């Protein structure tokens, strides 16, 4: 959030924040449970976007566009980019843990050469001061 907000401030742009709710095949007999799980996942997504949007507003005085989608994260990222010609860069935060950068970054790294816009991966170990020096 910090890098994307600083970059938007610097170039006079905006930020689109996407939260993808991963769905699994739902058995019809459990449809009521699936609906409850979906509602809970949407609430969690909204809370996360509220927090991130508040931070972006505090950093760059911008109100990010908020998007919540369901499905495969990689497919949803591509779809949002394909449907919004104003998106000029994808910014992702990499995990600083030993488990690797995260599943989305790992997946997108395989297709980065054919991706429709530049991808910026921000290492999770960078402080806000480090990011200030970069953005």
Question: If you had to describe this structure to a student in words, what would you say it looks like?
Answer:
A two-stranded parallel sheet has the order 1-2. A two-stranded parallel ribbon has the order 3-4. The longest helix is centred in the middle third of the chain and has 30 residues, at 31-60. It has helices spanning 2-11, 31-60, 73-82, 103-109, 128-134, and strands at residues 16-21, 65-70, 90-94, 119-123. It has one domain (2-134): HUPs (Rossmann fold), CATH 3.40.50. It has five helices and four strands, in the order αβαβαβαβα. The model has no long low-confidence stretch (mean pLDDT 91). It has 135 residues and is of the alpha/beta class. 12% of the residues are buried.
Structural class: alpha/beta
Number of helices: 5
CA-CA gap between termini: 12 Å
Query: Mean pLDDT, as a whole number?
Result: 91
CATH superfamily heading: HUPs
**Helix percentage:** 40-55%
Strand order of the largest sheet: 1-2
| Low-confidence segments | none
Please indicate the percent range of residues in DSSP E strands (runs of 2 or more): 15-25%
How many DSSP-defined strands? 4
CATH topology: Rossmann fold
Evaluate the radius of gyration: 16 Å
Number of domains: 1
The CATH architecture can be named as 3-Layer(aba) Sandwich
H/E element sequence: HEHEHEHEH
Q: How would a crystallographer describe the biggest sheet?
A: 2 strands, parallel
> Quick one: overall form?
globular
């Amino acid at each position: 959030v910090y890098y994307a907000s600083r970059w938007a401030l610097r170039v006079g742009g905006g930020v689109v924040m996407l939260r993808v709710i991963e769905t699994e095949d739902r058995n019809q007999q459990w449809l009521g449970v699936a609906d409850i799980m979906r509602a809970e996942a949407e609430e969690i997504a909204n809370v996360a976007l509220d927090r991130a949007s508040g931070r972006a507003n505090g950093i760059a005085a911008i109100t990010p566009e908020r998007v919540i989608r369901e499905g495969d994260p990689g497919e949803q990222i591509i779809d949002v980019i394909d449907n919004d010609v104003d998106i000029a860069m994808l910014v992702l935060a990499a995990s600083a843990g030993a488990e690797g950068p995260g599943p989305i970054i790992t997946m997108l790294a395989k297709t980065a050469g054919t991706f429709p816009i530049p991808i910026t991966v921000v290492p999770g170990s960078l402080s806000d001061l480090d990011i200030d020096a970069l953005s």
